[in-house]
Design brief:
This protein is an alpha/beta fold. Helix content is 44%, strand content 16%. The chain has one domain (2-262): 3-Layer(aba) Sandwich (Rossmann fold). The chain contains ten helices and seven strands. The protein has a seven-stranded mixed β-sheet, sandwiched between helices. Helix 6 links the parallel strand 1 (94-98) and strand 2 (121-126).
């Protein structure tokens, strides 16, 4: 009953925020046009939440609803819109996820590449276990590797290249370093030391003008999360605050997800 009440409260809050979105933002924009709007972090988030409801293709909304059901995935609706905008604009040929839960992001990437008609070599690093961190705990009864396979089959998708290991292991470091990633998504362990190591490893293996999206990293920013969102956790937020602006530019922030582009 509590879960139903929570969902209803979030739905009401989402509709209220959509009604408060300025009229000039209630239209479909691409990433470059959106960037020129010079919106606050909160406005960017609300725009992407609105985008999900009004402009995201039905099959991608259905994908999000599948993973939202029965606790199959975390995240927020606005993040599907964020990935849509990023894949539409950058059309990445390579994409890496650090930290896989049940496959929501890596399956979405494959669907986006199919939608926009380009090939994307998708890879991931994850122990596929219930191991947590100082702020997160995970269900112990799930076989996460088998579950990811099941969820790929659900959408008729091939599996990505997989490194089944902690991101801090030598095996994972070798796997990540072997690529030149155009997009890397850091969504693994939230403790500062691990998030920092993930950032440094991915940054070193990033292609020129590549993008790193850092999850749960918007504490100490001007983002004011509505009831259906959060600003993230201390560890990744500290990593984001320490990123060298001479090397990376922040090009998009959607809630607690922040996208940084390598300058050369």
């Amino acid at each position: 009953m509590l879960g139903v009440q929570t969902r209803i409260r979030k739905l009401i809050a989402k509709r209220r925020n959509a009604s408060n979105l300025p009229a000039h933002l209630k239209r479909m924009m691409k990433l470059d046009e959106l960037q020129h709007q010079q919106l606050s972090r909160t406005e960017l988030y609300l725009y992407c939440a609105y985008y999900f409801d009004h402009y995201l293709p039905d099959e991608l909304q259905a994908h999000r609803k599948y993973f939202s059901a029965a606790g199959r995935g975390f995240g927020e609706d606005a993040f599907h819109a964020m990935w849509f905008l990023l894949f539409e604009h950058f059309r990445p040929g390579t994409a890496l996820e650090i930290g896989v839960y049940r496959g929501q992001t890596i399956t979405l990437w494959k669907l986006l590449a199919e939608h926009f008609g380009f090939e994307c070599d998708i890879a991931c690093v994850s122990p596929f276990s219930s191991i947590g961190d100082s702020v997160s705990g995970y269900r112990t009864e799930i076989n996460y590797h088998e579950d990811v396979i099941t969820n790929h089959n659900r959408f008729n998708l091939p599996l990505p290249r997989i490194c089944r290991s902690l991101s801090t292991s030598a095996e994972a470091s070798t796997f990540i370093s072997a690529g030149k990633w155009q997009i890397a998504y850091i969504d693994g362990n939230h403790d500062y030391e691990v998030a920092l190591q993930d950032w440094e490893t991915c940054a070193a293996a990033l292609a020129s003008k590549g993008i790193i999206i850092l999850d749960d990293s918007s504490l100490q920013t001007d983002f004011r999360p509505p009831a259906f969102s959060t600003a993230g956790h201390p560890g990744p937020s500290r990593v984001a605050a320490e990123i060298d602006s001479a090397l990376f530019s922040e090009i998009l922030a959607v809630g607690h997800n922040r996208a940084f582009q390598k300058k050369s």
